[in-house]
TrEMBL record:
Entry protein name: D-lactate dehydrogenase (Cytochrome)
Superkingdom, taxonomy of origin: Bacteria
Gene Ontology biological process terms, A to Z: respiratory electron transport chain
PANTHER family assigned: D-2-HYDROXYGLUTARATE DEHYDROGENASE, MITOCHONDRIAL
Organism lineage string: Bacteria, Pseudomonadati, Pseudomonadota, Alphaproteobacteria, Sphingomonadales
The family this protein is said to belong to: Belongs to the FAD-binding oxidoreductase/transferase type 4 family.
Length: 457
């Protein structure tokens, strides 16, 4: 099928705009394992108009389109099949403008999150959505999944940072809703249709991001707590800090793996119930630091915390965050594994982890479980391995994790999206009426199911 539309796309995009053969096969659609790209062609537009042209050509030839950003997603959203077109936004990588007074950044969808953060910093601003994959993940991808990351607790998810965007529908129609205003109640706020839609309703090509003033204080500590009640007490007390920006946990099995001597130094000894990375970012450097340390001393003296280490320099801050972000080390240590991204009430997290552990021990003796996440905003990530049979047992593992959420009214996808790997479990978090309404919206904007056709449903 590609031979039918390829000449038209090559003429539209010019030199370097179309990849075929080994240039396609050498890429992977998964960040942790080699998942070959099965599509025959990758197209790389440079403008919104070129994206629209590609989608018009695809529609004329009945071709389906899978969108690629940084390919850091872990839910299979970038997977393709033979005969499909992969539309990569990697060449749409320009920061178009920055307004330091309005704290607004206009960027193309292929800009990496790290590049957006760097541009903000150079303008005296701070873009607070932050992920471990910041160097590769694109801002279009963060919009697609409504990514949250490390500092959602303080500044919200991607949806909260997007003022406006531009998207192209399946038939090539350009919907430009590049709103710069915080207040704009003029009918439906169309940008919210595309944030978190995983490319199923349209391809986001540009966006207007709302940043904040660059913080002048930055304090980080790693804290050990003896039990779940202590973890909850720690969180309750730290929430009174006006500058609290992160509350991240690591369960012991993961912490042990990522702090083995050959990986990096172990900041605190083993033996805690959980390890919590806490962070404060504010605008009163001296008083913020004093308040942060005073609260930690209070928590240590009361027994809520059994040990803590406070970063004394930029290098030490980075080292503590590196412990938290070394998840890939643990992933490779227990591979093969299945990864999960769930959300439930803070008070329910530890009990839920215990439920999962018990079910795994019952069905798969010797199973390995690693847990970490953004507890401050109800989100944990689990990695589960049952050995060589992990792939074959994926459905049974899914059932333990996802059915276990039902008593807690949790969500089976907090920030990674549904992709092509979780759609069978969407009913766990969405009722029939909600799913039916989602289908109505999908059918209205993409009636022939040409955009990311196996994603979500």
């Amino acid at each position: 099928m590609a031979s039918a539309f390829l000449p038209a796309i090559e003429a539209l995009l010019g030199t370097g705009g179309v990849l075929t053969g080994d240039d396609v096969r050498m890429r992977s659609s998964d960040p942790f394992r080699q998942v070959p790209i099965e599509a025959d062609v990758i197209v790389r537009p440079r403008t919104t108009q070129e994206v629209a042209g590609v989608l018009r050509i695809a529609a004329e030839h009945g071709a389906t389109v899978v969108t690629h950003g940084g390919r850091t997603g872990v839910s299979g959203g970038a997977h393709s099949v033979a005969g499909e077109i992969i539309l990569s936004l990697e060449r749409m990588n320009q920061i178009e403008s920055i307004d330091p007074v309005g704290q607004i950044i206009v960027a193309q969808a292929g800009v990496t999150l790290g590049a957006l953060q760097q541009a903000a910093e150079e303008a005296g601003l701070y873009y607070p959505v932050d992920l471990g994959a910041r160097g590769t993940a694109t801002v279009g991808g963060t919009i697609s999944t409504n990514a949250g990351g490390n500092r959602t607790l303080r500044w919200g998810m991607t949806r909260d940072r997007v003022l406006g965007l531009e998207a192209v529908l399946a038939d090539g129609t350009i919907v430009s809703s590049m709103n710069r205003l915080v207040k704009n109640n003029t009918g439906y706020d169309l940008k919210h249709l595309f944030v978190g839609a995983e490319g199923t309703l349209g391809i986001v090509t540009r966006a207007i991001f709302r940043s904040v003033a660059k913080p002048t204080s930055h304090d980080v500590a790693l804290v050990a707590v003896p039990d779940n009640d202590a973890m909850l007490a720690l969180f309750t007390r730290l929430q009174r800090l006006p500058s609290l920006s992160a509350f991240e946990i690591m369960y012991p099995d993961l912490y042990r793996i990522v702090t083995e001597p050959e990986v990096q130094p172990r900041p605190l000894p083993l033996g805690a119930h959980v390890y919590v990375l806490v962070e404060s970012m504010g605008y009163h450097a001296a008083s913020d630091r004093d308040q942060f340390e005073a609260v930690l001393v209070e928590l240590l003296e009361s027994g809520v915390a059994t040990d803590a280490v406070v970063a004394q320099s930029d290098a030490q801050r980075a080292a503590l965050w590196r412990v938290r972000e070394s998840v890939e080390v643990a992933v490779h240590a227990i591979a093969p594994l299945v990864m999960f991204d769930v959300s439930l009430g803070v008070s329910d997290i530890d009990r839920y982890v215990g439920d999962v552990r018990a079910k795994l021990d019952e069905q798969f003796p010797g199973a390995k479980l690693i847990v970490q996440g953004h507890v401050g905003d109800n989100n944990i990530h689990l990695g589960i391995s049952v050995g060589a049979d992990t792939a074959a047992q994926a459905h049974a593992i899914d059932a333990i994790v996802y059915r276990g959420l039902i008593p807690y009214e949790g969500s089976m996808s907090a920030e990674h999206g549904i992709g092509t790997e979780k759609n069978a479990w969407l009913h766990v978090s969405r009722n029939g009426a909600e799913i039916a309404l989602m289908r109505v919206i999908k059918n209205a904007l993409d009636p022939d199911n040409r955009l990311n056709p196996r994603v979500l449903f």
